[in-house]
Design goal:
- The complex is a heterodimer.
- Chain A is mostly beta strands.
- Chain A has strands at about 5, 10, 20-25, 35-40, 45-50, 60, 70-75, 80-85, 90-100, 105-110, 115-120.
- Helix content of chain A is about 0%, strand content about 50%.
- In chain B, strand 7 (about 85-95) and strand 8 form a beta hairpin.
- In chain B, the strands form two sheets. In chain B, strands 1, 3, 4, 7, 8 and 9 form a six-stranded mixed β-sheet that branches. Chain B has a three-stranded antiparallel β-sheet with strand order 2-6-5, with no helix packed on it.
- Chain B has strands spanning about 10, 20-25, 35-40, 45-50, 65-70, 70-75, 85-95, 100, 105-110.
- Chain B contains no helices and nine strands.
- The chains are: A mainly beta, B mainly beta.
- The interface of A and B includes residues 50, 60, 62, 97 and 102 of A.
Amino acid sequence: EVQLLESGGDWVQPGGSLRLSCVVSGYTFSSYGMNWVRQTPGKGLEWVSGISGGGRTTYYADSVKGRFTISRDNSKSTLFLQMNSLRAEDTAIYYCAKAVEAILRGWDYWGQGTLVTVSS
Amino acid sequence: QSALTQPASVSGSPGQSITISCTGTSSDVGGYNYVSWYQQHPGKAPKLIIYDVSNRPSGVSNRFSGSKSANTASLTISGLQAEDEADYYCNSYASSSTVVFGGGTKLTVL
């Protein structure tokens, strides 16, 4: 059974940093791209970032480029999102999601999400 | 990265068919056959129901189908059931290697 479990969400002040993790099990982690997608409570979904199976290729939404860094440790089947210079508008539930095939084309397994709150 | 346009809400009676549209531009929906659709029930994570415009992942009911014409993609749900009541989101691969989502559509089964 495929499982994705996010952690690391917390309350942080504007300008602060957080590191999210997503531990995966049930498939060969290194064979598939991964993404982070966020959702403001009660609102819509927003793609944040994606990474290739080997970790060499990364993609970012303009809204987080230069502030967030996606990475992965395939030996530990874990995906990360380092978030710096956090802003109030980054407040959201953050989901990790596995790519069906290519990184940015369809995500078939999702975690349950972890809540990030940016507020003074 | 402008959001794709979806109707805020649609409704239908059990057994009927409904269609949800997702309109973008030639830089996203119209330029690539990489549109996906997700179903989200309250308090749950999104679930992939269509990818690459019209492909269904294994385990997804064949009552769900996808299509595309020019800059507009569509999700059709046939034989509407009470359990289909949820929010539906489209997304598309876009130029400069990004992904853009629609604003979401709330489906009400009457």
